[in-house]
Amino acid sequence: MSASEAADAQVVAQDLVKRFGSFTAVDHVSFRIGRGEIMGFLGPNGAGKSTIIRILCGLLRPSAGRALVAGIDVAKDPERVREHIGYMSQKFSLYRDLTVEENLRFFGGIYRVPHRELAERMRFAIEMAGLGGREKALVSTLAGGWQQRLALGCAVLHRPPILFLDEPTSGVEPTSRRRFWDLIHTLAAEGVTVLVTTHYMDEAEYCHRAALTNQGRLIAIGSPDELKRTALGGELLLLECEAVGPTLAALQQAPGVIDASAFGSSLHVLVKDAARSIDELPAYLEARGLRPSRIERIDASLEDVFVELIAADMSRQGRAA
Amino acid sequence: MRIRRLKAIAVKEVLQIWRDPRSLMIALLLPFTQMFLFGYGVNLDLKHIPICTFDREGSQASQDLLKRFQASLYFAVAHNVKNYPELVAAIDRGDCRAGIVIPPDFSERLNDTGTTSVQAILDGTDDNTANIAWGYASAVVNSYSGDAQLSALDRQGRALQQVQPLAVQSRVWFNEDLVSRNFIIPGLIAVIMSLVGAQLTALTISREWERGTMELLVSTPVTSSEVMFGKLIPYLVLGWVDAALCLIIAVLWFEVPFRGTVFALFLTTTLFLAVILSIGYLISVLIRSQVGASQIALVATLLPAMLLSGYVFPIDQMPAFIQKLTYLMYARFYVTIIKAIFLKGIGIGELMTPILFLVVYALAVVALAARAFRKRLT
User: Fold this and answer.
1) Would the CB atoms of A93 and B216 count as touching at under 8 Å?
2) CB–CB of B202/B294 below 8 Å?
3) Predicted confidence (pLDDT) per residue in B203-235, tens digit
C-alpha cells in the first residue's frame, strides 16, 4: 500500500481484539480500507465478521486495539462516527410495520437530512431499490430481496461516505444478489467506502479486495487476483482420471505436489511448478498403473483459495494446540 | 437534543401504536372496561344484607319487630325459618349473612319485666359485613325498644315526651350521601392510569430489541434522550386521552361529583403520567422481552396501586411500617390529589405537598430511565 493510500484510508483497524468472556471473537485483526474501495470480508459463520463490523459502527467496544472510521477513534467518539456511516445489520432491522416511505422518512429524520433534499433522496432510494409504486406498502409485505434493497436505501439516504453492510445478500435470490452488487459498485464509483461481509464465496469476486477470516483471525487479504495467484503458494492443476481414490493417494506422495483434493469427479492438484508437473505427473502415475485422461493448468477459483487457506489455518491451529 | 430526531421517533411510535391492535386495546379498551368492572364491582355500601328470621313466639310484638327488619333498607329477609337447623343450613349455604331469633318468651318478659332480648347470629366469615350487619341490627332493635318503652309508659298513664339529653347532629362533608362509589371511582382512575400507563411504555423498547430494530437504531446518531422523550410523548398524549375518558365516565355515567378544576386535574395527571410512563419505559429498557416487561409492569404497578395507594384501603389503618412504605408509592399521592380534586374541589395551592412528592418522583424516575438506556452495547 502506498503512502497516499494509507493517508486516504477511511477505515483503519489496528490490532483489534474482542473477547466475550473466554471466547475470542476477533483476534488481533488489522487492515485499512481506502476511499471508494469495496472490501469484502469472507469466512465461515462465527469467523468474527459481524463482530468486526459492530466494533467499527461503535456498537461494541474493542477489548484491545484501535479502530478509526473517517479518521475518528470509534471507542472515543462513537456518536461522531455515526454521522459518517450507514449500516445494514445482518438481521433485517427496518420497521416491518411501517411502509417503505415511512421507513425512509424516519431515517431521513434521524439523520436530519435537510427537508428540501429529503424528497429527492427518497425518490433516489426508492428507484435504486426498485420499489417504485410500492411506496405505501408495508415492509412486512415485501419479498426478501426488496427488503434488503430498501435497507440499503435507508443506509445510504443520508449519503454516508462509509457503508458497513453485514451479509446484505444473505437469503436473497441470485438475480437480486447480482443487482445488489451493481448498486454497491455504483456507490463505490461515487467515492463511498464499503465494507461488506458475505458467506457466499463467489461474491468475493465483486470486491476490490477480499479479506478471509477464520476463528476471529484475518488469514489472507488482497485483491481476488492477488489471492488466486499467491495465497495458495503454488499453481493449480485439474486432473481427470478413472480411479479417483487411488490416484488421489498416489498424488499425495508425488514429487512437486503440495496438496491434492477431490473436486467433484476430478482432482485439483496444487503443485510448485505447473509446467514441470504437467510433464512429469503422467509418467509418475502410469508407473503406478493409473491413467489420467486429462491434465491441465487452471486458474484457481477464490473458493479453492479459501478452502485451502482455511484448511491450512485449521491444521496450523491444531498443531499449535 | 434535536427536535428533528425527536419528531422522527415520535411519529414512528405513533404509526406503530396505530398499527398495533394490542397497544390500542390497552390504551383505549382497558380503561373503559376497568372503569365499569371496578365501578360496579367494588361497592362498599352494604344494603339489603340477606337475613333469616326465626320467630319462636309468633306474637304481635315479635312480628312488629321483624317487620322493622323487613322495612329496613339495610336488610332483606331471605327466609322465615321454623327451627335452628334450618337457620344453620341457610347460613351454611350462604343464603343469609345473619339470623334474627326471637325467643319464645319475648313479649311475656317484655310485659313482665320491661326488658327482654333478641338473638342475632352472624356469619363471621366476612367480618366486615358481620360487623356492619350487627350495627344495623342493633339500631333496628334500639329503635323498637325505644318505642316499646314509650308505649309502656303510655299505658301506665305516664305519657311523657321522650327527652334525649344529648343528640349528635352529624353532617357529612364532601361525600354527603356517603356513597362509596364517589370515594372509590376517583381512586380507581389512579389505579387504571397506573396499569395502562406502565403497560403502554413497557412494550416500547423491548419491542425494538425483540424485532431487531434496536441494532440499527443504535448505529444512528440518535441520542438516548431523543429516543426516550420521542417515545414518551405519544404515550403522554394517549394517557391524557385515557384520563379524559375516565373523567367522562366517572362524571356522566357514575355521576361522581367533580368539584375541582380541569386544569388542576390536567396538571397533576400529567405529573403522574410522567412517573408511570417512565417506570414502564425503565422496565422496558431492563427487560428485553415484551412479554416479560409487560408482566413485570403489571405486578410493579397494579398491586401497589390497588393495595398501598389508599384507593380503597385507608392508609391510616395500616400498620406503621406499611404506612411508611406507602410514601414510596407514587400512586398514593395521586390518589390523595385526585380524590381531593373530585370531592373537595380544592386547587393546586392546597395540594402542594402531594404534588411536590410527585414532582420529586417524576424527576427521579425520568433520570433513572434516561440513565438505564445507553446506546453502547457491551
Assistant:
1) yes
2) yes
3) 899 999 999 999 899 899 999 899 999 999 999
**A147 and A283 assigned to the same domain:** no
Of A198, A228, A258, the residue that ends a domain is A228
CA atoms within 13 A on the CB side of B99: 26
Q: Does residue B298 register a pLDDT over 60?
A: yes
Q: Which residues make Cβ contacts (< 8 Å) with residue A295, sequence separation at least 6? A: A237, A238, A239, A240, A278, A281, A282
Sequential DSSP letters for A1-17: --HHHHHTEEEEEEEEE
Q: How many CB pairs under 8 A join A and B?
A: 81
Is A196 a domain residue? yes
- Count H helices, E strands: chain A? 11, 14
Reported ipTM: the value is 0.80
Burial A269-282 (b: 16+ CB within 10 A, else e): bbbeebeebbebbe
Contact of B7 with chain A, judged by CB distance below 8 Å, is answered with yes
Give residue-wise pLDDT tens across range B71-95: 888 888 888 899 999 999 998 888 8
Q: Using a CB-CB distance cutoff of 8 angstroms, which residues of chain A are in contact with residue B376?
A: 58-59, 61, 78
B3 close to A (CB below 8 A): no
Residues A142 and A119 in one domain: yes
The superfamily (CATH) of domain B49-155 is: abc type-2 transporter like domain (3.40.1710.10)
Report CB contact under 8 Å: B20, A97: yes
Supply the range of the domain harboring residue A286.
Answer: 233-299
> Which chain B residue lies closest to A74 (C-alpha atoms)?
B376
In this structure, what C-alpha cell is assigned to residue B11? 411519529
Which residues of chain B lie closer than 8 angstroms to A72, CB-CB?
none
Collect all residues of chain B within an 8 Å Cβ-Cβ radius of residue A94: 213, 216
Residues A272 and A187 grouped into a single domain: no
Same domain, A111 and A209: yes
Residue ranges covered by each domain of chain B: 3-12+21-43+178-372, 49-155
State how many domains chain A has: 2
Separation of alpha carbons B240 and B163, rounded Å: 57
Contact A79 B223 (CB under 8 A): yes
Whole-angstrom distance, CA of residue B6 vs CA of residue A243:
70
Nearest by Cα to B43 from B178, B184, B174, B177: B184
- Closest to A149 in 3D by CA, of A187, A118, A120: A187
Half-sphere exposure at residue B65, Cβ-oriented, CA atoms within 13 angstroms: 30
Backbone φ, ψ for residue A199 (5° rounding):
-110, 5
